[in-house]
User: What shape does this take?
Amino acid sequence: MVIKMSNRKYEFKVKGIVPPRNVKGKSMWNIPTEVRRLIEFRKEAYAELNGLSPLSEDITLSIKIHLPRNYNKPGDLDNFIKGICDGLSVIKSTENPNYGIHPDFENPVHAKIHPKSFAMIEDDEKIVKITATKTVEDIEKPFYEVVIEGK
Assistant: This one.
């Protein structure tokens, strides 16, 4: 007998901040500006997952980034996409000192979203489709929306 897994869908919004960015050669998990973004992002993802197991198959991801017109240096869309994808998983390696975890993650209030333990997806290699937009709008503060589906 084959048990067919059904798709699950999660949607959440992160207000007042742009997404975490993952730039080649540096670890977003150890850069103070990105750590703050990661903490907010992972808090929202954790709340939306609501204790269920991470997604592991046929994952699709939709990202909508909304920026104020006067936002200074918003960042490249592809770096935000990578930051979100990596931020949904556990950290892959901490052996290289350049890729360590910032001490802010060791605060007990962040135990549930720690990079070594929390994941909304098992591995970002299981993402089969990504759609992303970055728009400049007449708004006061940046925010972004994430929709993730899979099994």
The first helix runs from residue 32 to 49.
